[in-house]
Design a protein that fits this description.
Elements lengths: L1 H28 L7 E2 H4 E3 L5 E10 L9 H13 L16 E9 L8 E8 L10 E8 L5 E8 L5 E5 L2 E5 L4 E10 L12 E6 L4 H15 L4 E3 L4 E5 L3 H12 L2 E2 L7 E4 L6 E3 L4 E2 L2 E5 L2 E12 L10 E12 L3 E5 L5 H11 L3 H13 L3 E2 L1 E4 L1
Parallel strand pairs: 15-23
Antiparallel strand pairs: 1-14, 2-11, 3-4, 3-6, 4-5, 5-10, 6-7, 7-10, 8-9, 11-13, 12-13, 15-16, 17-22, 18-21, 19-20
Length: 377
């Protein structure tokens, strides 16, 4: 009897275990994972940045599409003098195959001498095309005036054009080209990431809630008091010694953080009429009246001629007819919307054009019915 009771109890425990596992599996189906992003996508390391480079140079070898600007001629004469070619004073130079250009590039963080960079070459004169040209050796300087790279090479221009007998056709842009691996780094920028005891993380978007969440995630991963949010953008992190700092930063970038919800915002492009809103936009109940008003002006000439054998003159005047057409407006009640889909349905019910929607959204914001920040670009 005791054995039967023990067996029944054992079977009952297995049944309850199976039921609990089934309920847990069902509940997991309805749990939506939180949207988390890698820390390297949310923040950057202070001091790890690109540095812009710029230079002035000459492109040669063009097929008669260069420029004749004074600074191009002066630059060409100066370059020839450096190569030992001296031209007599007053010599007129015709250079249709040379163009003055501006070279731009970006020096990445931790770049070392000998590393190659891509550069963009842009015409600064009246050159018609840079296609087929070769950039002569040009120093590239940083904001401090120091030379950090040297650029030279053949240009690749994505456009093409042709002209004959007054007819001209062109596809894409011809006055800008690119040289892959066209610059060589000559000087590296000092690395300051190992000179301090702390590493500062900078959020790409300032937000106090997200900064606090990032600090909590770092402390959970590496221990308490490892990270401290200084403000809504900067998080100070205590990093180990130089020997293991790189691996520490690699692990730091892999941390997943669910950022705080952003502010409700609507971006309006006044030039194109585009309207973009994020998920946090909400709408209170309101009434909107929308109608169109058009003014049409037609002008016809009126000529008055004098009678026969009279000394009068013909007089030409204009007569204008003005019409004002007003379409009947509609008053629509927009129900409150707690999410973005409800707001979109309510705005679609108005039937307004994108240009009209700009003014309607501004009026709804002024009335207090639209809970979002309006930004016009």
């Amino acid at each position: 009897m005791n054995m039967m009771t023990h067996q029944h109890s054992k079977n009952t425990s297995h049944v309850w275990r199976d039921i609990c596992c089934a309920l847990l599996s069902i509940s997991l189906l309805f749990i939506q994972p939180a949207h988390a992003e890698r820390l390297k996508d949310l923040a950057t390391i202070q001091g790890v940045r690109n540095n812009q480079l710029i230079g002035y140079g000459l492109v040669v070898g063009l097929d008669g599409t260069g420029d004749q600007t004074p600074y191009t001629v002066q630059s060409m004469i100066s370059m020839m003098q450096q190569m030992g070619v001296n031209l007599p004073a007053g010599t007129s130079i015709q250079m249709k195959n040379v163009a003055s250009v501006i070279i731009t590039g970006s020096l990445p963080a931790f770049a070392q001498p000998g590393q190659t960079l891509d550069v963009t070459v842009s015409s600064m004169g009246s050159a018609k095309s840079l296609r087929g040209g070769t950039l002569l050796m040009t120093p590239l300087k940083g904001a401090d005036g120091q030379i950090y790279a040297m650029a030279q090479g053949n240009l690749v221009v994505g456009g093409v054009g042709a002209s004959a007998n007054g007819s001209q056709t062109q596809i894409n842009h011809l006055s800008v080209g690119r040289i892959s691996d066209g610059a060589t780094v000559e000087r590296s920028i000092p690395n300051t990431i190992n000179l301090t005891d702390n590493v500062n993380l900078e959020l790409k978007e300032s937000d106090f809630s997200t900064a606090s969440l990032v600090a909590d995630a770092i402390n959970k991963r590496f221990g308490q008091n490892t990270a401290l949010a200084q403000d809504g953008r900067v998080i100070r992190v205590q990093a180990p010694a130089n020997s293991s700092r790189v691996s520490f930063l690699a692990d730091l970038e892999k941390i997943n953080v669910a950022p705080a919800p952003t502010n409700a915002k609507i971006i309006m492009n006044a030039r194109t009429g585009s309207v973009v809103m994020n998920q946090a936009v909400t709408l209170e109940s309101c009434a909107v009246s929308h109608g169109n008003l058009s003014v049409v002006i037609n002008t016809d000439p009126v000529i008055s001629q004098p009678g026969a054998l009279s000394s009068g003159q013909t007089i030409s005047t204009a007569r204008s007819q003005i019409e004002i057409n007003k379409e009947p407006g509609k008053v629509l009640k927009l129900n409150s919307g707690a999410n973005l889909s409800d707001v979109v349905k309510a705005l679609n019910a108005i039937g307004a054009t994108p240009q009209d929607l700009l003014a309607i959204l501004q009026a709804m914001k002024a009335a207090g019915s639209l809970h979002a920040d309006l930004e016009v670009i």
